[in-house]
Amino acid sequence: MRSHDLSLKLLGHVYWHKKTEFMLEVDDYPLWTLFAVEEGRFAYRIGEHQGEASFGDLVLCPPQTAFHRQTLEPLSFHFLQFMWLSERSTEEEGDWAGKLSIQDKDRLLSNYRYLRQLQGWDEESTMHRQHMVNDLIRIVAMERALSDDTISESDELMEDARRFLLEHAYERLSMLDVAVSLGLTAVQFTRKFRRAFAQTPSEFLNEIRLTRARHLLEGSALTLDAIAAKCGYENGFYLSRVFTQKIGMAPSVYRSRHRV
């Protein structure tokens, strides 16, 4: 499945805590169904795909497909149902059936925590749930791309750029300077990075910075200017503008709702 075909519409979400057994050992669903494991283990079989899943694993079952499952340890997991927003071939569907593992455990834990906190199906909660589930799928796609053994020279250059952005994410960065250091124009850099990771360098950088900003809003009493300085933004005003645009609410509102 190509990266630009990954958009989905979330239609159902239930969080199960310490479930000791499934009501049915085999079931099939009219929608794509995702079991996202937080704790415990379970055995599964979906067509030719079978094995065990635990934390770090997503098990994805296509519609109208027998989903065999058995708990091996008390299981805490998110039961999510969705539909893809574009048609896909049988081969593309097969690429996403069965177990999908995520290496970025910190980001995975963060997404799970937000999913647990979101209550109800009002417009705002639904939007945030949708973002979290899309993010899970996007992480799988990105990690798959990065693990490809047939990386071209251009992809290696973009991996170097990605690594640099990760290492210097909370510093003042000029994308033009980064591009020049890679021997590229700003337009070339953006185009190549988007081709490699399905997002622009600025979008990638904002994602990292806003994750830290969310954590600081939740777990500290720092002012917005202080948080901005720790996340690589010029000032609290600019952070507030980016945060509101990307997260869907002002930092002050987010803090009031998510303080730990």
From TrEMBL:
Swiss-Prot/TrEMBL keywords: DNA-binding, Transcription, Transcription regulation
Residue span(s) of domain HTH araC/xylS-type: 159-257
Domain of life: Bacteria
SMART domains to which the protein is assigned, alphabetical: HTH_ARAC (SM00342)
Pfam families attached to this UniProt entry: HTH_18
Residue stretches spanning the membrane: none
Keyword Transcription assigned: yes
Key word Transcription regulation present: yes
Gene3D superfamilies: Homeodomain-like (1.10.10.60)
Cited PANTHER family: ARAC-FAMILY TRANSCRIPTIONAL REGULATOR, HTH-TYPE TRANSCRIPTIONAL REGULATOR EXSA
Designated name of the protein: HTH araC/xylS-type domain-containing protein
Organism: Paenibacillus marchantiophytorum
Taxonomic lineage of the native organism: Bacteria, Bacillati, Bacillota, Bacilli, Bacillales
